[in-house]
Amino acid sequence: RTSRVAHAMFWRVSGLAKTSPVELILDKDSFTLEELLDEEDVVQECKALNGRLVAFLRTRPNVEAMVRYLVQPQNDSDDMKVRYKYAFIACEIFSCEIDSIYSTLLEDEGLMQMLFAYLDNEVLPSALISGYFSRVVGCLLLRRTQDCMEYLKKNQSVLEKLVKHIASTSIADVLMRLVGADEQIMIYHPDAVYWLADTSLLEDIISCLAPGKSAQVYANATDVLCAIARTAPSPLSQQLNEAHNVLKLLDYAIQGEEKATGDCLTVLATMLGPKRMVVIGMGGMVGTMDMMDEDNISEVPQATVRAVCSRFSDLVALLAVKDKSKVAPTTYGILQPPLGIVRLRAVQFFSALLYSGEVDALEAAMKHKLVDKCLALMFQYPFNNTLHHEVEAILCFALDGGESYALQILDRKGCDLIGTLVTASETISPAPRSGDYNGRCKLPLRAGYMGHITRIANKLLSVTEQYDSVLVLLSKDDRWQSWMEGTLRPRNDVENVGSWQCGRPGAMDTGFDSGSFSSDLGLMTGMGSGLPDRYEQAMDEEEEEEEEEGNPLLQDEEEGDKDPSSADAADPLDPSTTDEDAAAILASLDLHSTAAALAARVSASAAVDGSPAPLAASQASVSPRRNVGTTSATEDQAPDVYNAHDYWKVELGGYEVPDDL
Predict the structure, then answer these.
(1) What's the mean pLDDT in 568-584?
(2) pTM
(3) CA 163 to CA 342: how far, in whole Å?
(4) With helix as H, strand as E and coil as C, how does 502-566 read?
């Protein structure tokens, strides 16, 4: 206790505490901003809201100096502090989100113009300074949204400058926050970005996908447009779905450069996909979620679907190979030609289009034989699982579209899905790479699409439950019947985890109290629905076995079931037991655990005959090696001669075991 008091008094003595270097500078009669920026503790003191330090930094001359260090790098200076350190420290101070410093900056028009004057450069000086600028402007948009938006409304030329430098990832991050992609702005200030729909910002960003731009411009413009498309219905997202903007994106995808085609298709697929929405949870907690539920999926604008259907033939043409001379060596062989990002993005776009469930889209897909072409791609590239997933989704959406679409897919003169499934090769022998002599001797590989083939076939079986005509068609097709009996059914039996011998069948999992939680756990971990319960049951059984092994009472019960004539069943307290037999028993038992069991028996006997109640069994103690008879015993060596009754004497708080026990 004395040491704790002395320790507390040590820290209370003011003379022993270390004074911050920032405080020493603030105690001076005169000092400069640069002296504070040189100290390493200045950022930590700002986060701690040091009153004197904040009062000094929030003055206009000091805020102006920090902005100058931030956006006007002194590249001609030989001092490394001026070139790098001061800009970094100024950025960190602004990022501390001190309201009084923000007020000084936002309330002064000249300081804001100085900050955004960084965008006046024809070419941004460096990615480092762009990162500092992006971080500071992002904090302003996040913490002082209304004030920052008011400035941008009055100075809309800043928006054009931001789009001009969209090749910089840091500037693209500012644009994404500005259009409402940030969750906090989207939740608490959704109306703050409405005015952007009245500007030319969206048209300028779409124009960045025009031919003649760099790949970085295409990538960043795609990210910003996808952020707009994912947000809940807003003026900007509605403007993006207008017919003239959709047609412009389609033109860039079809007639533009190849490197921009994939990016344009990504934007179009995002426009057709689910949107984010603001939700209010328990306790008033606010957040965002993807509108993946069928009840929450927002309807795709008809203008978007009509515009896409008007160019459907041109979009399907993107699935064709333009250059067959390209070769891509892979670990398993040669791809000639490779799939390419354009064709993969096109398949993903068609998957998103059919996911919308629009009748016009399904009609156009059937008219231009989209399913046939996608299935051909799946078999042409047997190890591209991303492609296989999208093709399976397209096929499932088409089968769910209606009875007529399902019959068209099964028609022998059309897609002939049954023939495709039946004749699908289970093994692939890819062409070896040049110089790979061992590759010619490798065994054929199992095709990577076989799992998707099984899923498609099972989907077809589920469709028969909806449409009788499909059931009749399949029942009359001998190819399907033989393949289902010989291939599909055995494969389903093998892949049915509920029938595996590694645990109990899945049917036994129903009715378990934590079944819903276990099912969710199985989905999260990638296991089957029954496997978590099986592991839980196995763990419970192991715990029970461990408890039985460590419980002397249960051991006594098990030993009592043995043959009384055996030496293990003998009672060392029985007068008929010889000292030699008792010594053998005592040498093989844990005396502490046995004493606890014996104490419980003594307590029960005392309660029956009215003897004084002993202590709890857990308080009993036994001397494992006691001087008995004429021979002494040590901890490591048992005595040669035992007196069984004295050796088993139990000390129960002064109460000894009666002689008759």
Answers:
(1) 63
(2) 0.71
(3) 25
(4) CCCCHHHHCCCCCHHHHHHHHHHHCCCCCHHHHHHHHHHHHHHHHHHHHCHHHHHHHHHCCCCCC
Q: Position 464: which residue type?
A: T
- 287 CB-contact burial (10 Å; exposed 0-12 / middle 13-18 / buried 19+): exposed
- Per residue in 474-493, pLDDT tens? 999 999 999 999 999 999 98
* Distance of alpha carbon 644 from alpha carbon 468, whole angstroms: 86
* pLDDT, tens digit, 9 for 90 and up, residues 131-156: 999 999 999 999 999 999 999 999 99
Q: What is the 3-state secondary structure (H, E, C) of 132-164?
A: HHHHHHHHHHHHCHHHHHHHHHHCCHHHHHHHH
For residue 614, name the pLDDT band (cuts at 50, 70, 90): very low
C-beta neighbour count of 121 within 10 angstroms: 13
**pLDDT, tens digit, for every residue of 591-605?**
555 555 555 555 555
Peptide bond between residue 337 and the one before it cis (omega within 30 degrees of 0): yes
Q: Which of 396, 390, 527 is nearest to 449 (CA)?
A: 390
Report helix, strand or coil for 198. Answer: helix
Alpha helices in 73-214 (DSSP H): 80, 86-95, 99-106, 109-116, 127-143, 145-154, 157-164, 169-178, 183-188, 201-207
